[in-house]
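// run 5 | inverse folding | seed 20
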């Protein structure tokens, strides 16, 4: 992948040959880091989220205190909660979740779903790396019941979980 930086006119080549270090599965959702922040001078990062077919899968309510999240629906049907607002999402739709606002999203139906996630500024992609390193693949079952883990995630990434929207 080649990215042109508007500020410096530098071409960035990303070698995706080491795909295992960029793919992480959490709560049955596969996250792939497409463009990490170290390649954008920390301005943004891009991830892909793949929701497998079968049961409906949800990213529970949470908020980011450091970054805005932009989500582009590539495939599948989703429901999104942003503050007190609920929206349905289908391919081609774009959503912007400002930092400091509780949000969640859920794949609906039995088909698979695919989202493109853009974090501005970058940094939150490391959340997925660190969870994979800790072998916390089932955050709902293990991590959310571990108050130390929740506090570490909140401190390191400015994310707050277990919120009532």
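// decoded
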């Amino acid at each position: 992948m080649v990215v042109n930086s508007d500020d410096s006119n530098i071409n960035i080549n990303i070698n995706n040959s080491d795909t295992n270090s960029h793919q992480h599965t959490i709560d049955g959702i596969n996250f792939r880091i497409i463009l990490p922040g170290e390649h954008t001078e920390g301005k943004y990062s891009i991830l892909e989220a793949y929701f497998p077919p079968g049961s409906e899968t949800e990213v529970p309510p949470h908020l980011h205190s450091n970054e805005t999240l932009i989500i582009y629906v590539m495939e599948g049907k989703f429901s999104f909660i942003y503050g007190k607002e609920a929206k349905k999402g289908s391919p081609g739709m774009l959503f912007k979740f400002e930092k400091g606002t509780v949000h969640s999203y859920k794949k609906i139906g039995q088909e698979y779903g695919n989202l493109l996630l853009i974090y501005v500024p970058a940094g939150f992609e490391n959340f997925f790396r660190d969870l994979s390193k800790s072998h916390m693949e089932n955050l709902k079952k293990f991590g959310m019941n571990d108050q130390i883990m929740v506090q570490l995630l909140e401190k390191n990434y400015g994310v707050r979980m277990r919120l009532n929207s």
